[in-house]
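In response to reviewer comment 3 from the previous cycle, which asked for concrete evidence that the modeling workflow produces usable outputs, we include below a single protein chain processed end to end. The sequence was submitted unchanged, and the resulting C-alpha cells are shown without manual editing.
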Amino acid sequence: MDNSRLFLFAALIFVAMLLYQQWQADYGPGPAPVSEAETTVDSSGQQAAIDIDDLPEQADSISGSAVSSTTSADGQITQTPTQQLLRIDTDVVQALIDTRGGVLRSLKLKKYPTSLEQPDDWLELAHSDQNSAHILQSGLRNKQELAPTHHSTYQAEQLEYELAEGQDELVVPLRWNRDGIEVVKSYHFRRGDYLIDVKHRVENKSAQDWQGSEYRQIQRTRPLETSRLLYTYTGSVYYNEEAKYEKVDFDDMEDSQLKLESTGGWIAMIQHYFLSAWIPGQEDQNLVYTIANTRRNPATYTIGLRSQNLLVPAGGSGEFSSQLFVGPKIVNRLEEIAPGLDLTVDYGVLTFLSKPLYWLLSWYHSFVGNWGVAIILLTLTVKALFYKLSETSYRSMAKMRKVSPRLKTLKERYGDDRQKMNQAMMELYKTEKINPMGGCLPILVQIPVFIALYWALLESVDLRQAPFIFWIKDLSVMDPYFVLPILMGISMVIQQKLNPPPPDPIQAKIMMALPFVFTIFFAFFPAGLVLYWVINNVLSIAQQWVITKRIESAPK
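The workflow returned the following C-alpha cells.
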C-alpha cells in the first residue's frame, strides 16, 4: 500500500472521527441540570440561596456607548458622554478598558502582528466595532441595585497607564460608589504575561449589611470568515472536574440556555491559536451560563460565571477575585494557570498522542531554533519509530511487485473465471510466502500517529509566522510559490513507480490521478503540514527503494 492509499485511509478515519464528535455534540448527553436555587457562602460563613435566573442584562449595542443628560436654566437638555477609554501599555499587550462597566473592549498582542508585512499592526484579540465584537465583561449583582454592573459608570484616576522600565506589575483601579457602598474594580497586568488579575473590593460604609455576587463573562459575535479547508473550532468552552472539557457552540446557545453548577474550572472563548478565558478560584462554587442575543445585528453570544453571594457587614469590607487570560495558546503556560486550560489547544480525541508529539517538536526547536528544521527532525523520529513496521509493509509490496508479471499471466490465462483466478493467486502467494495484507496492516497501525501529528502541527501557535528557509516566511500559511505541494506530488509519482501496479485498470487510472489531486489539495495547506508530508514521502521512497532492490536482486 503506497502513501496515496495511506492518505485515503487516514482521511476516511479522520472524517469518521469528526462525524462521531459532531454526533456527540448533537445527540450526546448534555450538561447536568441545576436546581432551582444555588447554595452560596457569605464572608461570615453563613449560607444563602440566590436565584439562578438573576443573570446580567445584555446591552442594546455592542459598542456600549453611554451619555448623561443635564438641563440648563433655559430648559435646554445637553447630552455629554460618560464613557471614557483607558489605554494600558505593557511589554506584551496594549489594552483599552471602558469606564462604563470596566469592560475590556480591546486587547492587542504586541508579539503577534496580523501579518509579516505589517509588523506594527498587532493582532486585536479582544475588540469591539459595529460588525464584530469579542469583549470581556465583569460586574457585581445586588438585589437593592447597590452594585456596579458592566453598564455602570466608574471613575478613573487617569486615562493612560504604562508599565515602566523595571516595573513588574501595573494596577489599573476604577471606582464606583452609591449610598455608602464603594467598589474598587482593579486590573493587575504583569510583565511578560497575558494573565490578568481582576478584583472587586467592596467597602460597606452604610448602616446595612450588603450581599451580592460577582459575574464574569465573555461576549462575542460569530467570526466574519472561517477556513473551509482547514476547520478549527471557534466558540465557547467550559471545564470543571465533573464535566471535564465541554464545547458550547453558537448554535447550541441559540437552541437552549446553559445553566450549570460548577466547582472551580474555567470558561473560555477559543479560536485558532488564541483564546480568552475567565478563571475563578479552583475551590469556588459558580454557575456557568450562556446567553444568545439574536435580536441584535450581528447577534452576540455570551458565556459567563456567576459566583456565590458574599455578605459584607456594615462597616466591613470584602473582595471578589478572578483571573483573566487573553492571549496565545502556549501549552506550557496554560498548564501552569489552571487544570485543563491546556485542552483549549484542541487536538481532539488523539490528544494523548498529539501532546507528546508537540512536546518533542518543541524540544527539537529548543536546540535548532527553526520550526521547519524541528518538523524535519520530528518526521525523522516518527519514521525511525515505525521503521520495522514500514519495512514489513515495503517488503510485502516489493514481493508483490516481483510477482506482478506472473499475476498478469494468470489473469490472461483464466480470463473472467474469478474463482480459478483467486485460487491460482492464493497458491502463488503461498509458494512465494507473500501475505497480501502484509502491506496494509503495518501502515494502518501508523494512521492514528499521522493524524495526531497533523493536529499537533495545525494547533501549534508556534508555527504562526515562523520562517523556514528562503521563500517560506510563515509555516502556518500555504506555500506562496507552491514548491512544497509540487514536490509532494512528484514524490507520490515516484512512490507509485515503486509499488506493484493495481490489477484493475480502473483502479490503476485512479491511482495515476491521485498525485495530481493531492497536489491541488495540499496547495492550500499550511506549509508546515506539507513539509511534513514531503519529508515523510522522501524517507519512505528511500526505504522502499532499498528494500525493493534487495528483494528483486535476490536469487529466485
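The first helix runs from residue 3 to 27. We consider this sufficient to address the reviewer's concern, and the full set will be provided in the supplementary archive.
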